[in-house]
Amino acid sequence: MKNYGLKDRVVCITGGASGIGRAAAMALARDGARVAIIDLREADIGPVLDEIRSHGVKASGFAMDVRDADATMRAADHFEREIGPVDGLFACAGISLTAPAEILPEADFEDVLDINLKGLFLTCRAFGGRMVERGKGSIVVIGSVDGLGGHAGRLHYVSSKHGVSGLAKNLAIEWGRHGVRVNCIAPGFVDTPLLRANMPPAFIDAVVDRTPLGRMGMAEEMASVALMLLSDAASFVTGAVLPIDGGLTSGFFTRK
Ligand code: NAD
Q: Family per UniProt (predicted)?
């Protein structure tokens, strides 16, 4: 089992009830961190908290929508009271939709931008603002390989994830001198409920065929890099946008 040196740190994960966020919650619990979970529904958060606590660490949950600015502030207060001031944030909540650009509904465009980008800004403002006041903290935001280039049928998602890469860089330069690091991970194809719901099996097979490591990633493989970036092992890393994609974005021609 890896040790990230995050024992007794207080780390909040948005979207912590499923997929990549949930995998990060479990990795943090195994490392001895105190874990704060934000997700939409209490009923989804409860079982995650039980599993975290089974590792003998403190955990706290807050059901909310990341688009709600007031709720982000209330969540930060709640966690501070229950398990201590949050000094690490993994902003992982997100949605994924698909539609050709020429018929893409305006409402879908707004939803994806609101959750994936504005929600992430609001979360970073609430938790990162307090880290700035205390002069220390580390934030990892969830981008995507779709934040590095285009993807047909995914204009809204691609726009939101390009925004996330920019947001991470901007926060990094604004908050660096306040002792707060901000980095972005850019997963490729990761086997989660979100991916299975959005990508036809034949498309997944085609992507795997183009991926130098020859497979999809696992949620735990995103979580481990997020934890490394949250930890002091990455003490001189800020403003980075790091692909975790099995080499998918490293080149166009992947077969000899
Ligand atoms: P997932 O659906 O398994 O988990 C996402 C979680 O976010 C869910 O628990 C959901 O309830 C929560 N959530 C959604 N909207 C929310 C809101 N408005 N407020 C609060 N919580 C909300 O998905 P996942 O695959 O683990 O994806 C997590 C993140 O990783 C997303 O931002 C996604 O864009 C990104 N990502 C995933 C992949 C992949 O292949 N799975 C690749 C690149 C990036």
A: Belongs to the short-chain dehydrogenases/reductases (SDR) family.
- Hey, is 19 helix, strand or coil? helix
Return the pLDDT at 102: 98
Tokens of 89: 């944030």
> Is the model's pTM score more than 0.90?
yes
ipTM over 0.90: yes
Q: Cite the beta strand spans of 87-197 per DSSP E.
A: 88-91, 137-142, 180-187
Residue 254: pLDDT band (50, 70, 90) is confident
Pocket of ligand 1, beta carbon within 6 A:
14-15, 17-21, 39-40, 65-67, 92-96, 115-116, 119, 142, 144, 187, 189-190, 192-195
The rounded distance, in Å, linking the Cα atoms of 89 and 181 is 10
Active site residue 4: no
- Measured from the Cβ of residue 18, the count of other Cβ atoms closer than 10 Å reads 18
Token pair of 19 as six digits: 């997929």
pLDDT for the residue 93: 98
What's the whole-number mean pLDDT along residues 194-223?
A: 93
Distance CA 164, CA 117 (A): 6
